[in-house]
Each structure stands twice: as C-alpha cells, then as structure tokens.
Amino acid sequence: MMMRRPVLIVLLFILFILEGTIVPWLIPGAWQSRIVPNLVYIVILFVSIYNHRHTALVLGIVFGMLHDIVFYGQIMGTYSFAMGFSAYFMGFVFQTPRAPMPIMMTVILLGSLLLDSTLFGIYTIFQMNHTTYDWALVHHILPDLFVHFVFGLIIYVPLRSQLEKISKLNQKENAA
Question: Are 128 and 77 in contact (CB under 8 A)?
C-alpha cells in the first residue's frame, strides 16, 4: 500500500517525458504550434479533487517548474505559478471527495481554461504576447481544452480508483 504514492510521482514523470517526446509525433504538423497538451496538469487536477488540494499545489509547482526549465524558458516560474494556483483553486472550489465524471470533466475544462488564461495574462503583462485573447482562445485554448477533455475521459476510471485508494490510505494513517 505504501508504494502507491511513489507510483503517482513516477506516473507524472512518465507523462512529462511523453509530453515532450511521443505526443508531438501524434499531433499533425500543421497543428503543432496550436496544440500543446499538458497531460501532467490533467493528472494534477485529478489529485486536487480526489486526494488533496495541497498535494496538487506542491505537484503543480514542482512539475510547472520542470515545464519552465525544459520547455518554456522565457520567464521562469510562469508555469509553476499557473499550474500550482489553478490546481489549488480547482481543488478549493470543487471540494467533493467522490466527484462523479461530469463534475471531474467540468473541473478539467475549467482548470485548463484557467491555466491557459493565467499564462496568457502573465505573458501579456510582461509584453511577451502580442495577440488578443479572442485569437488565443480560438487558436490555442479551445483546441487544448478538447485534447485535455479527451485525455481526462481516457484516464478517468483507472486514475480515480488509484487516487481513492491513496486517499483511504491517508485517512487510515491520520486516524492512527
């Protein structure tokens, strides 16, 4: 039972590696500048709902910093802040321990929208983005929402069951 937490971290690292290696091959060439799937973030959203929002905050900060270092080195800390903040906020707003699928898919859509909008706002404030929000919404944010939604549907059942087991394990440890 104690191996479940490290398995979650290993899963996040594997998804992080897949985001940079295999996923770009799956996206058509014309769409590669438009779609940037963030698979790690979707798993972190699951953690914020089914485990705890503080855990999701830490995971969002750590893996966001990895995104900043490996993929997006223009400003350090943007993904770290955006992933940590949005995962924590989604976990705070949707405090349902056994969220059904429609609620979790709503969390994925709203969380992905919040993440991309936060990143757009940060890049606009620092004048690194010269497009309008309407253009970014249609050309980047909505395609990302669709990919995140499909990925969330694919991993919903196995990830939910594993996170519920981790949550029960945490409750047993806290009771002891």
Answer: no
